[in-house]
What we know:
Layout: H1 3-20, E1 28-32, H2 37-52, E2 58-65, H3 73-82, E3 85-90, H4 93-100, H5 106-124, E4 129-131, H6 136-150, E5 159-162, E6 167-170, H7 178-188, H8 204-218, H9 222-232
Parallel strand pairs: 1-2, 1-4, 2-3, 4-6
Antiparallel strand pairs: 5-6
Helix pairs in contact: 2-7, 4-5, 6-8
Amino acid sequence: MKRIYRRELWQRIGKANEDFGLIGAGDHIAIGLSGGKDSTALLYIMTEWQKFCPVSFKITAITLDMGWGGDLTPLKNYCAATGVLYHVEQTNIGPIVFETRQESNPCSLCARLRRGTLHNIAKSLGCNKVALGHHLDDALETLLLCMSFESRFKTFKPKTYLDRADITLIRPMIYVEEKTIIKLVKRLSLPVIHNPCPANGLTKRQEMKDIISCWEKISPSVRDNLLGALKNSNLWPR
C-alpha cells in the first residue's frame, strides 16, 4: 500500500474522530461485522486505531446470522488472528422479512430488525458504543434519497446517542470514500463473504450511487463538495 494512500486514509479517520468525538477513554465498542467490504475494513481500521489512539478502548465484533446460512469461518479466523472478541448471534431476520412477511419494502423492515438486535446484543456484552461501517458515499447517497423521495435535506449523523437503547452509534469512516475502502480491502486481502440478500444491488440506493458516479465525470470533486455542504449545514453539529 502506497504511503500517500495510507496517510490520506488515516488523516480522514483522525479528522472524523476529532470533529465528532467518536471514541473516548474506556469505551467498549461493538463493531457490526456483516462480512461485507465496509464492515471488514472498519474492523481493520479500528484494530489499527487501537495501536496509536491517544485513549484506550476495547473492541468486540458482532455478526448477525440472518438465517440464510453461509460460512463465517473467514471472519472467525480474522478475528482470532487479530485478537478481537467475536460474537455470532443467530436470527431469522432474513426469512421473516422475505418469506414470512413478503414485504414490499423489505430493506426498511430488515434494517430496523437488524439495528434493534445489534443494539441489544451490544448492550448485553457490556458495550457502550456501536461502530457501523458507513462511509462518505453512504452518507451522500442517503442525502440524495431523502432529497429525491422525502423532500428533506437529511442524512445520518457521524455520532448519535440512542436514549431508548442507551447506546451511542459512531461511524468512524464517515469521511472515507468507498473507492478507498475497496483499495484497502483488496490490497490487504481482508476477508469478505457473499451477501445472500435477495435485494442486494437492486435498490434505490444503488441508483443514487450511479447518479453520483455520473456527477463525478462532470465534477471530479463532487463528493468533497457535497461533504462541504453537509458540514456547512446544521445536520452534522460538532
